[in-house]
Amino acid sequence: MSDYFKHESAYVDEGAAIGAGTKIWHFCHIMGGSTIGARCTLGQNVTVEAGAVIGSNVKVQNNVSIYNGLIIDDDAFLGPSCVFTNVTNPRAQVNRRGLYEKTWLKCGCTIGANATIVCGVTIGRYAFIGAGAVVVKDVPDYALVMGNPARQHGWMSRHGHRLQQQDRNGLFMCPESGFRYQEKAGTMRCLDLEENQALPTALAIGKKTYDEFKG
Ligand SMILES: CC(C)(COP(=O)(O)OP(=O)(O)OC[C@H]1O[C@@H](n2cnc3c(N)ncnc32)[C@H](O)[C@@H]1OP(=O)(O)O)[C@@H](O)C(=O)NCCC(=O)NCCS
């Protein structure tokens, strides 16, 4: 067994693979055949089904069910009570076990509280899903989507700030990190830190709220 923490009220079934430093809080159920990376936090009442794959440093808030078919990359944030599905056309009378549809949450994305992600979609790196959104199609890297059905309302930086104003070279700047971003043909990229590079330690602790940066 690796070195993880489990609250006494949580069930971890035999055959679940859980990385070091992960914390599993009250009333969670982790099923055998699921995979959870290192340094994750699973809040109260989180279920992880057999076949689900969760990377490292993933933060899952209360009341989230992670089903077979869901792949969650490192550093994703899943807000409280967000919902995933794994069958597009479920019927109680038809057994579709083994026909689960894949949903992929890429590195660093955020799923807002109470959002619903319909199966089969890919949520891009550092994409941001607003609270209560219903996502029915793929979301590009760094895109901010909200509403039902979710539509793109701009871009969000790696630190979770809207990228709105362009300088005279057409670049956006994140007010928290100072990183510059460039949009080309509908694709947003950070010019100062590759998407797969870790954040420098000094930039990994927030010091001001969202509204303070918004001004
Ligand atoms: C998406 C979000 C980041 C937008 O924040 P923002 O940039 O400050 O947005 P504003 O409050 O300035 O609103 C801008 C517009 O978007 C709308 N809007 C904001 N959040 C929305 C949401 N989640 N769904 C639908 N519309 C939303 C506002 O009504 C407003 O519309 P208007 O221009 O027609 O008046 C924020 O509302 C949100 O949903 N954050 C997620 C919080 C969360 O789930 N945290 C998890 C637990 S910690």
Structure, described:
The protein is mainly β. The protein is built from one helix and 25 strands. The protein has a nine-stranded mixed beta sheet, with no helix packed on it. Strand 24 and strand 25 form a beta hairpin. The N and C termini lie far apart (48 Å). Bound molecules: coenzyme A. Coenzyme A (COA) binds next to loops.
Give, in order, the helices and strands. Answer: EEEEEEEEEEEEEEEEEEEEEEEEEH
Give the overall average pLDDT. 97
Strand fraction band?
Answer: 25-35%
The tally of helices reads 1
Structure described in brief:
The chain is mainly beta and 215 residues long.
Task: Quickly list its features.
binds coenzyme A; mainly beta; six-stranded parallel beta sheet; single chain; 25 strands; globular
Draw up the topology in text.
Blueprint: E1 5-6, E2 11-12, E3 17-18, E4 23-24, E5 29-30, E6 35-36, E7 41-42, E8 47-48, E9 53-54, E10 59-60, E11 65-66, E12 70-72, E13 77-78, E14 83-84, E15 103-105, E16 110-111, E17 116-117, E18 122-123, E19 128-129, E20 134-135, E21 143-146, E22 151-155, E23 172-173, E24 180-184, E25 187-190, H1 210-214
Parallel strand pairs: 1-4, 2-5, 3-6, 4-7, 5-8, 6-9, 7-10, 8-11, 9-12, 10-13, 12-15, 13-16, 14-17, 15-18, 16-19, 17-20, 19-21
Antiparallel strand pairs: 21-22, 23-24, 24-25
